Amino acid sequence: MGCGFAACRRPQAGNTERPNMPAELRIICVVVIDSFGMGALPDAADYGDEGAHTGAHQAAAVGGARWPLLSRWGLGNAAALRGDRIPGVPPAARPEASAGLMALRSPGKDTVTGHWELAGVVLNRPLRIFPPGPPSFPRDLLDAFRAEFDTSVLGDCAASGTEIIQRLGDEHCRTGHPIVYTSADSVVQIAAHEDVVPLERLYAMCAFMRERCDALQVGRVIARPFEGAAGEYRRTARRKDFAMRVPGETVMAPLRRAGVRTVAVGKIGDIFNNEGFDDIHPDKGNDACLGRLETLLRARFDRPAFVFVNLVDTDMVYGHRRDPRGYHDAVAVIDERLAALAALLRRDDRLIVTADHGCDPCHRGTDHTREYVPVLIYGPGHASTDLGIRPTLADLAQSLDAAFGADPLANGTAFRL
Question: Which of 220, 243, 266 represents a domain boundary (last residue)?
Fold first, then answer.
C-alpha cells in the first residue's frame, strides 16, 4: 500500500530538491507525542480504522480540549486541512508555528514503522503480524524458547497487555511460566512478575526471542515486567524494547557525518536498536523525558544537535486503555511543558511536535489506529507557514538533513525549518 492520496498537496516522496535553509541551526528537537493521530488515512478501512481521529475524539469526549499552546501553534489549522475540527482548538488566525499533516506511507500502524519513517526509512512491505490465536506464534519459535529456558509459556494469543496479566497473572505466579502474547502490531511481548522472574532473565528471554524473530520480520520484542498481587497486577516502568535492525539508512547517519550531535530520549534508543546516536537517555515516562529535554536545552551542546524524544504515556497508559480523559489531560501537561521548553530556545533552534500513528481512545478495540499525524514547527526565528498535507513522514527527515546541510536521504521532500 503506497500513498496515492488525492489530498496530498506536496511532491511525492523521493523528490529531494531542497529549499534554502539557514546555514546552521544549533538545536532541533523532534518531540513525538506517541499515537497522537489526526484522522483516518484513506486506506484506514483496510486496517479496520475508518472514522478514527485520536485528537478530535478525545477532545469531544471531554467537552473541548484545553491545549492553549498547541492551539496557538496551529493544531486546529492542521486539522482544517482535511476539513476536520478539534473541539476547543479552532484554527488560529495567525498561528505561531508552521502547521501541517503527514501521512504514513509505509504499510502498518505500529511504533517502529512510524518512527522509522520519521527518520527517513519507508517500508515497502509490512512487518509480520501474528494471528490472534490461540495459537498465535509458530510452533518452532516457542519450542526453541521452551528448550532454551526450560519453561512452558502462557498466553500464545493476541491480547491487551493490561488484561492478560490480570487473567493469567495468578497462574504465572504459581508456575513461573512467562506470559507470551502479541497484538495488532508486529510484536512479541513477554510479561513476567518481577518477584517471579528476575528482570535479567526476562531481558534474556526477550533477547533470545529477538534473534529468532529477525527472520520473521517482527518489528519488536518487548519485555513487560509487572508487579502487585492477585487482582491488582500492574505493569512497571522497567519495560524494555528489542527492535529489529532498521532496513535502511536513517537521518542520524548523514547528520553525524555532517558533525551534528544526535541524541535519543525515552524509548527512541530501543526503537532504533541504540544505533545512530551519540547520546542515549532511556528515561521512562513523559515527565522524565520532558525533564531531560529541559536539561539538555539549558546545558546546550558544543556543536549543532538533533534531539529525538518520544513521549510514550499517551499511547501506553491512555490510548491502549481507551481513556480519553486521561489522554486529554496528558496532552494538557505536555502543552504546558512545551511552553516552558519553547522559552529556552534561541533564534536558530527549532521545536517540532509530531506523532508516529494514532490510538484513538474512542475507537473500537485497544489497538493503534492508522491516521495522519500533525507536524508543528516552532522557533523564535522561524516564520510560520502552511505545510499542507505531506505524503510521507519521511519529509521531516529530509527537512532535518537540509536544515543541517547534511547529505539528502532517499525518501522525502524537504520543507523549511
Answer: 243
Average pLDDT along the chain = 93
Closest residue by Cα to residue 314 from 327, 301, 302: 327
Same domain, 256 and 345: yes
CATH number for position 167: 3.30.70.1250
Please give the full DSSP string across 86-132, using - where no structure is assigned. BTTBPPPSS-SSEEEEE---SS--SHHHHHHHHTT---SSPPP---S
What single DSSP character describes residue 45?
G
Cβ atoms of 409 and 398 within 8 Å: the answer is: yes
Place of cell 545512530: 276
Residue 62 zone, left/alpha/beta (φ > 0; ψ -120 to 50; rest):
alpha
Q: Cα–Cα distance between 155 and 136 in angstroms, integer?
A: 9
Structural Rg of the chain based on CA atoms: 21
Is there a domain that residue 49 lies in?
A: yes
Domain of 235, in residue numbers: 139-243
pLDDT tens by residue, 202-221: 999 999 999 999 999 999 99
Neighbours of 102 (CB within 10 A): 29
Do residues 57 and 318 touch, judged by C-beta distance below 8 A?
Answer: no
Q: Which position has the grid cell 516564520?
A: 383
Residue with cell 491516521: 371
**Using one digit for the tens of pLDDT, what is the confidence trace for 265-284?**
999 999 999 999 999 999 99
In angstroms, the CA 288 to CA 320 distance is: 21
Contact 415, 20 (CB under 8 A): no
232 and 263 in a single domain? The answer is no
Are both 167 and 195 inside the same structural domain? yes
Phi and psi at residue 386, in whole multiples of 5°? -85, 115
Angle at 253 between CA 267 and CA 276, to 5 degrees: 30
**Run of H or E residues at 376:** strand 373-378
Residues 217 and 251 in one domain: no
- Measuring CA to CA, how many Å separate 108 from each of 185, 212, 334, 367? 8, 21, 27, 12
Which H helix or E strand runs over 200?
helix 199-213
Domain count, the chain: 2
Please report where in the chains the cell 478495540 appears, as a residue: 365
Mean pLDDT along residues 239-254: 94
**Same domain membership, residue 147 and residue 102:** no
Distance separating alpha carbons of residues 208 and 213, to the nearest angstrom: 9
Whether residues 263 and 397 share a domain: the answer is yes
